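FORM 12-B: Structure-to-Sequence Request
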């Protein structure tokens, strides 16, 4: 409705300059001014006005301007990092969280495992490509380049180990071709 802010009527919450980011039952309140007044205001709106109960173990107030501070939300980590060019300011960095990275690695480890030795390599690569594309589509927001590079190297490492285990003689790519290029020729899509 017009005139309504994220936390109710706009005239009641404008002093905090707060915005709510929500997905299903998870939400995060972004505000320029933090403090007990804002926390009390949010708690009262959530618990009395909406009739919901806050999970106190998950609820926390984080000042992202503090060095080393970050917050995880929906698989992303939000934090301020130094400017990569050495200038004096910092920027809000949005990257896949460590937990999301580990979850994806675990899923890939199950896909490219000893138990999949009977699966043709091209079909295995198709499955890996689907998993990688889905993960990359979800984490395309922010600055995921470093995370995607890590996933590429993880997949190459797992697939090379898988190819070497498939026969009694260790696998080697054709003469003059790297594993990277050979896997690409077999259909592997790099993020």
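FORM 12-B RESPONSE
SEQUENCE OUT:
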């Amino acid at each position: 409705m017009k005139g309504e802010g994220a936390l109710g009527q706009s005239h009641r919450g404008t002093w905090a300059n707060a915005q709510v980011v929500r997905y299903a039952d998870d939400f995060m309140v972004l505000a320029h001014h933090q403090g007990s007044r804002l926390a009390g205001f949010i708690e009262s709106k959530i618990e009395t006005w909406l009739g919901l109960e806050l999970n106190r173990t998950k609820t926390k107030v984080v000042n992202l301007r503090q060095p080393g501070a970050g917050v995880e939300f929906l698989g992303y980590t939000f934090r301020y990092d130094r400017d990569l060019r050495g200038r004096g300011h910092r920027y809000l960095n949005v990257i896949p969280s460590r937990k999301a990275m580990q979850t994806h690695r675990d899923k890939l480890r199950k896909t490219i495992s000893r138990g999949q030795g009977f699966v043709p390599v091209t079909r295995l690569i198709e499955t890996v490509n689907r998993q990688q594309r889905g993960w990359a589509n979800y984490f395309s927001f922010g600055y995921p380049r470093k995370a995607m590079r890590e996933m590429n190297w993880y997949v190459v490492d797992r697939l090379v180990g898988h190819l070497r285990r498939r026969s009694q003689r260790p696998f080697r790519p054709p003469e003059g071709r790297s594993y990277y290029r050979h896997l690409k020729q077999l259909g592997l899509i790099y993020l």
